[in-house]
Amino acid sequence: xxxxxxxxxxxxxxxxxxxxxxxxxxxxxxxxxxxxxxxxxxxxxxxxxxxxxxxxxxxxxxxxxxxxxxxxxxxxxxxxxxxxxxxxxxxxxxxxxxxxxxxxxxxxxxxxxxxxxxxxxxxxxxxxxxxxxxxxxxxxxxxxxxxxxxxxxxxxxxxxxxxxxx
Length: 166
Ligand SMILES: [Zn+2]
Ligand SMILES: [Zn+2]
What we know:
This protein is globular. The protein has helices spanning 43-50, 97-100; strands at 2-10, 18-25, 31-40, 59-60, 64-72, 84-87, 119-121, 126-129, 139-143, 147-149. The termini are far apart. The strands form 2 sheets. A 5-stranded mixed beta barrel has the order 1-2-7-8-4. The chain contains 2 helices and 10 strands; from the N terminus they run βββαβββαββββ. It has a single domain (2-152), classed as Medium-chain alcohol dehydrogenases, catalytic domain (Quinone Oxidoreductase, Chain A, domain 1, Alpha-Beta Complex), CATH 3.90.180. The protein has 166 residues and is mostly beta strands. One zinc ion is lined by residues 42, 44, 63-64.
């Protein structure tokens, strides 16, 4: 089974994204599918899109996402559908040498989700998730360990008056 969602797809460095359909596989072991409510636009997205930072293409960028978990894969422990969450684009594995020595920010596997395609375009072309997150989309697949739960009652969508300044 796949879940088809709309996403902003970048096909080459320096090119504008286009809205296209992306087929998400069912969440695999240790993965979850998140329905996005909002995503920030970061300067790193610009750097990934124009080649300043390495990014395999085609890709769905966006790594500052918030939304609701809607499906979980096998072994996605501690995460349930309906959980509202912020997505951590560099989730520590909690078991490598750095993680076990109190330095999770140096985790060897934190960016693992960005290394392989996470979904496919409608013609079957594999597509990569920018920084392992792919938040410029209606939904995405991320590691369960990327889920940062939001407290009950919090709203995942900020007021429009906040604007974006970063
Ligand atoms: Zn960022
Ligand atoms: Zn680690």
